[in-house]
Write a structure and sequence with these properties.
GO terms for molecular function: nucleic acid binding; RNA-DNA hybrid ribonuclease activity. The protein has 293 residues and is an alpha/beta fold. It has eleven helices and ten strands.
């Protein structure tokens, strides 16, 4: 059985750090061959949504099931955000191309203004960039409720300064065939928000390019020092329990595999790879290899 979940059920049910109820559940479920895997995206539903959104409705019924090429149907998307704090103002712009490429930009403003002005500056700056790239912009996502509602006409604009920004924004929006400014929550606009925060925090006198790299492994640890001192120990009663808790590996014999699944919730593996067993009174007992006794 394979359980697809976003929650750490494997670590929860196989750990001895919790209450008796959870430990009991882990012991009962351990008798079954259950594998926990992360739940991935539902690709079939994405394909259905894609066909439903980009199939023209004015075509003949026999042709409605045909999907146009991506280059002709998908549009450019724009995510913007403005950040204002005591250190300065910054703009974050993320422009997504139809093929998936991202164009990121962080702009620091050299004048003092409110957070609403920063949001409008981010909108104007990004629209000018989209026009220069001849992008067929379709959606603009902004987490400023004031800017979105003023552009849609739901909010009245009384301040002269904000009215000037609104007039300029509408003028630039008319340069596109069909564009819509939609609100977005801050948690879904984190990419643009990070760029805006970066632009507002950096020193204005310095101009720099910051590259972001990924380090997959720690700089220090057992992986690096393992070649210095090795201690090859023979297999013992601990080996199948460690293999199951660490790598989900079970013995080939059915009866032995069922036994390992049943007793595994009583044990716990520390970060340094040591096996511990929880006693009835509460403390952990470290399991020692027979060769070290």
């Amino acid at each position: 059985m394979v359980v697809l979940t976003e929650h750490p059920l494997k670590a929860l049910l196989r750990s001895a750090d919790f209450s008796r109820c959870i430990t009991k559940w882990g012991a009962q479920l351990g008798a079954y061959d259950i594998k926990y895997q992360p739940r991935t995206s539902i690709k079939g539903q994405v394909l259905v949504d894609f066909i439903a959104e980009f199939t023209p409705m004015d075509r003949e019924p026999s042709e409605r099931n045909q999907v146009l090429p991506i280059q002709q149907t998908t549009k450019w998307k724009l995510y913007i955000d403005g950040a204002s704090n005591s250190r300065g103002l910054g703009l974050g712009i993320v422009l997504t191309a139809p093929q998936g490429q991202l164009m990121e930009q962080a702009v620091r403003l050299g004048f003092l203004a409110s957070n609403n002005v920063a949001e409008y500056e981010a909108l104007l700056h990004s629209l000018r960039n989209a026009i220069a790239l001849s992008a067929d912009l379709h959606h603009v996502y902004c987490d400023s409720q004031l800017a979105v509602n003023q552009i849609s006409g739901e909010y009245a604009t009384k301040d002269d300064n904000m009215l000037a920004y609104l007039v300029e924004a509408k003028r630039l929006l008319r340069e596109f065939k069909s564009v819509q400014v939609d609100p977005v929550s801050k948690d879904l606009n984190g990419h643009a928000n990070s760029l805006a925060s970066l632009a507002s925090d950096v020193t204005p006198e310095l101009r720099r390019i910051i590259s972001v790299s990924v380090q997959d492994f720690p700089s220090v640890g057992r992986e690096i020092n393992s070649g210095v001192c090795t201690n090859n120990q023979a297999a013992s009663w601990m080996s199948p329990i460690l293999a199951y808790l660490k790598n989900d590996e079970l013995p080939e014999e059915r009866r032995e595999a069922d036994r390992i699944r049943r007793i595994a919730p009583r044990y716990w593996v520390s970060r340094d790879g040591h096996l511990y067993r929880k006693s009835h009174s509460g403390p952990y007992f470290r399991c020692v290899h027979p060769d070290t006794v």
